[in-house]
Design a protein that fits this description.
The protein has helices at residues 20-30, 52-59, 75-87, 103-113, 131-138, 158-163, 187-199, 262-274, 280-291, 294-300, 305-319, 340-343, 348-359, 385-401, and strands at residues 36-37, 98-102, 121-126, 142-149, 155-156, 169-175, 203-207, 231-237, 249-256, 323-324, 333-334, 337-338, 361-362, 364-365, 377-380. Helix 3 packs parallel to helix 9 (280-291) and helix 11 (305-319) runs parallel beside helix 14 (385-401). The protein is of the alpha/beta class.
């Protein structure tokens, strides 16, 4: 009998946010066990609701949304994105430079498929949102990870980035605010990355999906606002800021020096057309959503639910022996460090698996975000205070007695 195997293109692709340990958690739930699931930043799972005016904008336009749209998206939505981008200082020429996608995820895939030939390299931060690395690998490219420095608020290590630029490098990815660390990069750091990109004729890809989820008065600087000397591809969307992850409303904006990449841009348009268009009903929510930013500020400002939960989770994690954590300035996550010598941890996936089995808490290990050492995990602080407390109590109990030995295995 002929046996069909998965494509070798998947050999270096992982997405542990929905990986094998998550499958084990599903089996445990089906067997009647209750799991505290902190592996995914899906606001709806934790009771965050869609602002009603956004829901009305989508449902009220369903009669107009039953056919294909322009492959780049409806004009009113692209005009709203254009206005929003210009307000952030991005010098976008016009609506033809705006592409709407089924979330940022689809647009990342398109951006990499349209650019990379076998062996081409893209610089990606470590830790990263793993879809970026997966997209590069699936497109035939090579993801080269530059290190972010935990001792410097998780800012990119510019020397490490610089030394990893090679003749095969085509672009630099910046995830700012960062998932999973919650870092917000200072203007000067961004400017120096842009200078490296300009000097080496590289495209700058920026993932800014968390740009409105900021704490403690932090300012987000859009990288594409800093220069016109190279090509910028800026990704953003509504999944987290407006709690509509299931609507799949994301966009990609082209700015900067388009003359250096006219053929690439033709490829992006071709790929955009091949998938016909993004989800039509959700496109009608974009202009209304971008006119309403207050609802997220109510959650992230003093007394806001997200702000309060971040502070509580950060303080508790730092109080647990064997854990330490840099305070996130943005987003929905903490990225604590584990004292691996104290606990004898050699395999962080097994650490997360053992936590799941013993305490029924589901997290994602740091290596799932392309962090090279087995000494971190991502913690989602979206649950309400009572569930956060229960999860952290269980983690603390686990840390007291945990230790890996050679006989234990996932």
């Amino acid at each position: 009998m002929k046996v069909f195997k998965k494509s070798t293109k998947l050999d270096h692709v992982c997405y542990d946010i929905r990986g094998p340990i998550v499958e084990e958690a599903k089996r445990m739930e089906e067997a009647g066990q209750s799991i505290i699931k902190l592996h995914t930043g899906n606001p709806a799972t934790f009771g965050f609701e869609v602002p009603p005016e956004i829901l009305q904008a989508m449902t009220g336009n369903l009669c107009h949304a039953h056919g294909y749209t322009d492959s780049k998206g409806i004009r009113s939505a692209r005009e709203a994105i254009l206005k929003f981008s210009r307000e952030k200082g991005i010098p976008v020429a016009g609506v033809d430079d705006v592409y709407i996608g089924n979330g940022v995820s689809e647009l990342i895939m398109i951006a990499m498929q349209g650019l990379l030939d076998n062996g081409d390299e893209i610089l990606i931060p470590s830790p990263d949102y793993p879809l970026w690395t997966a997209a590069v690998n699936l497109a035939g490219g090579t993801a080269v990870h530059y290190r972010c420095d935990e001792l410097s608020d998780w800012n990119p290590d510019l020397q490490d980035l610089k030394k990893k630029i090679s003749p095969k490098t085509k672009g630099i990815v910046i995830i700012n605010p960062n998932n999973p660390t919650g870092a917000v990069y200072p203007r000067e750091i961004l400017r120096r990355i842009v200078d490296l990109a300009v000097a080496n004729h590289l495209i700058v890809f920026t993932d800014e999906i968390y740009d409105r989820i900021l704490y403690d008065g932090e300012e987000h600087v859009s990288t594409a606002s800093l220069s016109n000397e190279t090509l910028f591809v800026t990704m953003n969307g509504l999944s987290k800021s407006h709690r509509i992850a299931g609507f799949r409303a994301g966009w990609m904006v082209i700015s900067g020096n388009k003359t250096m990449a006219s053929d690439y841009l033709e490829g992006l348009t071709m790929l955009s057309s091949m998938r016909l268009c993004s989800n039509a009903p959700s496109q009608y929510a974009i202009s209304v959503a971008l006119a309403n930013q207050q609802s997220i500020y109510d959650l992230t400002g003093p007394g806001g639910r997200l702000r309060e939960q971040r502070d509580y989770a950060w303080e508790r994690l730092n109080s647990i022996p064997g854990l330490s954590c840099v305070k996130p300035k943005a987003a929905l996550y903490l990225f604590p460090k584990v004292d691996i010598k104290r606990l004898g941890v050699r395999d962080d996936q097994r650490f997360i698996y053992d936590l799941l089995i013993q305490e029924k808490v589901l997290l994602v290990q740091g290596t799932g975000f392309n962090w090279p050492e087995p000494d971190h995990f991502r913690f989602v602080f979206l649950p309400e205070r009572a569930q956060l407390k229960e999860a952290l109590d269980r983690i603390e109990r686990f840390m007291v007695s945990y230790g890996q030995n050679k006989e234990m295995a996932v």
